[in-house]
């Protein structure tokens, strides 16, 4: 073994030791991923495999948000490693959801945005979800209400109202993704928002916000004054 290698080179090959000594923030994304993967493949270390996977998917977020079929199609990933990556993404989503169930969402609107981004940003077709909240604006449930192009004909206010009453919700937040990456609300988005707000008001349920999610973040119609 060559012990004359520079210290930076030798320590960069031991991400676990560096993490324990200096904290996870000093590691690259590929090194953190290598700790999860544990081993590489023939001719490729775990760190190099991490680099390849991130590059192949177009970024860390895209990799972690991939479904099982996509992960299993990636070179170097078998069932065990694919399951580990799927578990990371699900644990992250559940941690955000736990925050919303415990905290008052209106005090921390960025929490809601982060949760919706984790839930929707990676999807290739439009999905619309409703976050049902209690009187303290804590999350009760998150239900998918539509899949496909968003319009008043695809999102049924009566079904959302029925669900709100079933959950004993005092308020809700609507969120849907724009796979195109354009965060600007369409006329259909604005029309649906107003229609749903008025329908919910009839049963004393507040529509607090409508979020439009893209790969880079979330736009709040309430913050834009469009609610």
Order of helices and strands: HHHHHHHHEEHEHEE
| Architecture per CATH nomenclature, i.e. the level-2 architecture of the largest domain | 3-Layer(aba) Sandwich
Relative helix content: 40-55%
Could you describe the largest sheet, including whether it forms a barrel?
5 strands, mixed
* Percent of sequence in beta strands: 15-25%
Q: Going across the major beta sheet, what is the strand order?
A: 2-1-3-4-5
CATH superfamily of the largest domain: Cytidine Deaminase, domain 2
Given the C-alpha coordinates, what overall shape results? elongated
> Regarding quaternary structure, how should these chains be classified?
single chain
Distance between the termini: 66 Å
Could you say how many structural domains there are in total?
2
Average pLDDT, all residues? 85
What is the top-level CATH class of the largest domain? Answer: Alpha Beta
- How does the helix and strand content classify structurally? alpha+beta
Task: Write structural notes for this entry.
This protein has 227 residues and is of the alpha+beta class. The protein has 10 helices and 5 strands, in the order ααααααααββαβαββ. It has helices at residues 7-12, 15-22, 29-37, 46-57, 60-64, 68-72, 79-102, 109-120, 157-166, 187-201; strands spanning 127-133, 139-147, 171-177, 206-214, 217-220. It has a 5-stranded mixed beta sheet with strand order 2-1-3-4-5, sandwiched between helices. The relative contact order is 0.09. Residues 1-12 have low confidence and may be disordered.
